[in-house]
């Protein structure tokens, strides 16, 4: 009972199994109770077949006992058996057992148990479509449970009543019912039941087109479920999987909502929890393990603070009410109780307002469109680049958004949102717009990224889908496509550069790795990314003599694997055969020393090879240092910190990412805002074996000829890996890590598994060990590419 009260299912299971094994009497009452309790634990962990078997065994034991002794225990057996049968969709048989249980509760005056059985009968009535009986049973269950002070009964009935309201589209009533259920099970410490109620709140918020609020409730649910799973590590794998499978929908619904909001990094993290830990190996990437499950954004954190305050006030109110009941007329704390009641009303109102603000935080595309139209000087800059540098460059903006559609015949029906997308091509002399096919775009980009974060799968099928969605859509007005017009605009030059300003989910996809069915986009154009700050610096000239400040961590740190590739990468770049400079490695890479050197502004190039930990709170993302961590929040207000820096290379994982696809919250944007002319950053966990290859080739090509632009050097480095070409002065000493057994790794936490995707396997060609985009496409060049 103690283990069950704490929801320590592993201990409960262990004790009950021992009790059953130690029982020498095959038909005694103790065995009946043990089998019933054991069945309840199996049912909670999602193994309904094992639960049904134990309930039936208990039922057989009971037939050998005196009915007057075991009938009350039989209520638990019949009720539990009915619930497990209901989960198995054997509704008629479940109804039989619920009816038996109800008869016994009436016979013995078991009001508390009757509330639970009435709740079950209501569930079955709802499933069968008998809505009148369903609501009646649920309301009776709540009334009986309230009369008997059975909090668990109230919580369960409230949760089921909420679903009844959902089916009737009474979303406000459903929300209130699920909230009550969540609060009750929170007070009881029942994490699994609370997670169920929170998952239902996520669903209701989603139905009302309030995705941001839905994400908050979904994260709370997943955090609770992960907490329970951590306590199941000692039970057999089958039970661990059955528990997860029985609640898999909560994880997948949350991931789907995150994907729809362009929050792919968080969605991928949620889906990682669903992976079978028996698959995969120890590969190292330049990121670190996350102690916090489904971390909150700043907005979600504020809501959670309100929830915590509500929980405290409810507990205080319950305590005072208990004291008042005991003290009667001598109760002296009525003023305090009144104050608590007033505070509860205020905090509840604040909680509702917080949810409304979160739901209203949809980003409008109008501001982005305004920015595109305002950038009139971009065309002048493009013309000047062509005149002064002989570079044929164009800019392509993408805009992804939603528009609201109201039902004019109904004021109560929730508004629906429809996705739309456009590309805007800007040349020195023209501007044109083309539609983007956004149907299934988020899911395709997610699958594309999953195929790119390993060299096992062929990313081309999804790379082509995204290419077609962007490049091959013609508007009814233009009768042409971005593909055709882009080819025409750049036809007169061999020096072709496409500058991308990406929006929403497309920020997570490397344009260079898109595929037209015949070749990758990197084989057609140089692809760079630009931001509003980039335009102001596109015409500036690099320092003719590069000196490099190389910084990194190659040693193992708590939560982070060793990065042997980081050390070799830095020592290759900063060397007599490449660029002069300084290397600060491991313990020398200290926070205060680093900031001091950056403020001195002596190095045109800063190259960091270390771990990076992404966090949905932008200021909490950090680079691993030799003596701790450097958060974005530590530097974002340090004016002109990177002034005079021609290139800031962030050779780590996910350094180009923001939690919702907004560039303003990413590390490169902050760095450019602080003066960095160009930033090299990554879109996913990068290989510690392949990254030195790309970086070495990039810097070598840049060093061979000072006239070689950064964009050209980076483009040629990518092509050399794709095509298996050797670069003079670059010695290949590393091997790909994922599809062989070398045990080399990547720059992030050890992956528990690799995604099982319905994609063809990638076939490597002899002499092209780094031809998969996993190796040459994770980094993007942002800003001044000259």
Query: Counting H and I runs of at least 4 residues, what is the number of helices?
Result: 30
Helix fraction bin? 40-55%
Low-confidence stretches: 1-6, 277-283, 737-745, 748-754
Look at the helices and sheets and give the structural class. Answer: alpha/beta
Give the radius of gyration: 31 Å
First-last Cα distance: 70 Å
Average residue pLDDT? 84
Number of strands: 14
Strand line-up of the largest beta sheet: 7-6-8-12-13-14
Give a quick account of the main beta sheet: strands, pairing sense, barrel closure.
Answer: 6 strands, mixed
Shape descriptor reads elongated
Percentage of β-strand residues:
5-15%
Structural features, described:
The chain has 786 residues and is α/β, with parallel strands linked by helices. The protein contains 30 helices and 14 strands. The strands form 3 sheets. Strands 7-6-8-12-13-14 form a 6-stranded mixed beta sheet, sandwiched between helices. Strand 6 (548-552), helix 24 and strand 7 (581-585) form a beta-alpha-beta unit. Helix 5 (67-87) packs antiparallel against helix 6 (91-108). It is elongated and about 95 Å long.
